[in-house]
């Protein structure tokens, strides 16, 4: 297993075993990624069938709403609990947490732009471009999840104390191992 120094911290480039709370966050990614792949396909389909563009956009809108209902609680766990906890050790004004929060905001803005643009079917101004917001949001999150899994979560495993990890597990309502 190889480790690297980054701002005085060792970052494990091997397969780090994560505590229950960090593993819980990581385990939510495949479901989100599966949903994003479906969003990407639906967004592409919207562009390919101009005659049904509005109908397809409205169907895509329902899928985006369902996706956001799963994404928001996931990101709130990170932004509301994990990031502040890690920030005590690695800072919050520069570095990985700033990047992670920026990417959360960027992805949410993309999806919210799509939802705003499809809110009222009679006011859809440029239907041929609306699907691009969904594609941008998905692209941002695929990259973001990769960074979390390969950098942020292993970093969290290394910098958080056992007490911090227990607090995370409690916050995420993960039962203790017995």
From TrEMBL:
Residues 22-155 form the Hemerythrin-like domain. It comes from the Bacteria. InterPro entries: Hemerythrin-like. This is Hemerythrin-like domain-containing protein.
